[in-house]
Amino acid sequence: MIYFDNSATTKAHSEIINTFVAVNEKFWANPASIHEFGHHTNELLETAREQIAEILQTPSDKVYFTSGGTESNNLAIFGLANKYKYRGNHVLISAIEHPSVLEAGKRLSTQGFKVEYIPVNKDGVISLEEVEKLLRDDTVLVSVMHVNNETGAIQPIKELSSIVRGNSRALIHIDAVQSFGKMKVNFDELDVDAITISSHKIHGLKGSGLLALKKFIEVEPILFGGGQELGIRSGTTPVPLAVSTAKAVRMASQNIEDHVEKLQKMTNDLASFLQTFSIVKLISPENRAPHILTFSVRKLKGEVLINALQKEGVLVSTSSACSSRQIKTSHVLKAMHIEDDYIKGVIRLSLSTMNTLDEIQQFKKVFRHVMNVIKGE
Amino acid sequence: MKWEKILVRYGELSTKGKNKKQFITHLKNNIKFSFNDIPNVKVNAERDRMFLTTTNDEEMQQLVKRLPKIFGIQSFSPVASCSQDLDDIKATALKIMDGLEYEGKTFRVTVKRTDKRFPMDTYEMQSYIASYVLQQCPGLIVQMKKPEIDLRIEVLNDAVYMMAEVIPGAAGMPLGSNGRSLLMLSGGIDSPVAGYMLMKRGVRIDAIHFHSPPFTSERSKEKVMDLANRLSHFGATVRLHVIPFTDIQQSIQAQIPENVSMTTTRRMMMKISDLVREEIGALGIVTGESLGQVASQTLESLTAINAVTSTPIFRPLISMDKLDIIDIAQEIDTYETSILPYEDCCTIFMPSCPKTKPKLEKVEFYESFKDFDELIKEAVENREVMSFPIKKTNEFENLL
To answer: Which family does it belong to (chain A) (predicted)?
Structure first.
């Protein structure tokens, strides 16, 4: 099996699974318990938190473990907008966000907030001029993803934040689910206020992730109960998942240059290969994340190609796994104004460092064969 | 942001005359000890301040995080550097301000222009930077005298240095500058606080604990080990001496009338402590006693207990209220451990109504029927000695 669907999820790293098992065996106490066992478990939890905080360059009491990207995005959108609503009720969200941001935004607009959307250009990159126009005195939150999950387009976060900082008092949230581990993501590098990270996209475990805030920034909780996670996220903290997340974050941010180089080499190779087909069009822009390459075959349904490739043992997806079961066209591709001939045939190849150059060569062979069968090319 | 160095302001030690150099050397060594995992930390000590530098930003963050625990530092400030380019200076100033909670605070800019070739003069630059910062950071109030935020800019020949944040240090005196004492560590709330207070005055600490298996559990010993470990976080090794106390306690039960057994127990503990103190070359004994708190801490009891030795006994909590002690315990992170509900050797043989005003002569008379000295010698010899900090992170290392 050749697995090129790493933006949907990745295979958990065996070392991380080992950590999960070991913590479940040795430190299974409730970290809030007062006995030594609980205390000790809590110490492990806090060490994990510190490790992440250090990587993200923020105080450790600003890192909250969650159930993953969706919860972190929800917490950021509702939590920041409500905490800082005294600054205003205007919220900006890019048109190409993940549904967990878009739908949260939609909900916010029924709760007294005015939500507006930042359009993107044909490369799927947000328009900074529009941001400047849309920003108002009462803008309280701007949420833009760092790397788009469907096209791999890198969003200009640094430029965005300097515009937002210069023109408003709005807070900035970035969804870094696709960028973490592939690009430098921390509060020192990017002048933002909140960062969402998901574990299972960086070879961690499903059902875990985190929201990190910049120093002094606060959120209102969206889950209420025993006041765990410093009052921000109630519910007994799953220490084994939290520790696994800390390990995944560490492994993803170590030797990042080597990872990027390897991924870049593989996707560049794929890109030049795909461009030899006259009916294939690259959807990913030049400035894309190193692990995602999205393309489209003219007048072909993506599903057909996926099934054909699957038969040969190659797993890919249409532009995103979340939307691949839905019939409607992706909002990202619509926002990019992709031509009708191409909008249905979009395929996303998303790689990880577990993929090999050998697999790239095999993919080429399979793809040539499949195209021959389907399109006679 | 790039931090160039950290400016450290000395605590009380700067009032010391000729001993100052020694104090500074102690502080320097303590800083090096605390950061022995960061070999690149350079300490440049001057007469009235100290500069710390490292090779990279990550290490700098570590310094900022850990410096507030080191005694002998009044406050410190991370110093940023940038080029002489005005845009660069403005951007750096803004970044520094962003790291502070500035809304509603009073503010001024102070410029020192060492490089006289710099095109703006001092006043020009002060108002130029100040007006830029005021535009960008709403809610600042300008005040020239004693502002809460003083953005200090120094224009040097090759660079510009800038700082605003003044982070409070732990104050006190550098650890080790006032010798060593032995702390009687029971496991309650008070004794770790007493130890901390002496440490803050520059005293190195060894701790002694009395353990009576099987009456006291392994858990209660672990609790004390945890407390000793927590005390060691304040920048020096803490040794813990665990004394096997069962035999002595049983002899006291057999020999001494119940209502003064508590006093005798304390006297034996004090004798043992004094022997250990002598052996390790410490000069004093520290206890967490607070006047009137319990039967053993009345003036009469303290006198009877104190009579076994002429060694100075330090009781930093003697006049403190329990609630104030708890506040400190929480601050130094020992409270949660201290309130863990394990029996210790003081509670297990607790008489129902101990004398609050024991008579020294009577106590001495009761004790004279038994040769405790032999037992005491044995206990001291058979003590278990441990050293802290234990690096707990090592245990987690494979997991993370």
So the answer is: Belongs to the class-V pyridoxal-phosphate-dependent aminotransferase family. NifS/IscS subfamily.
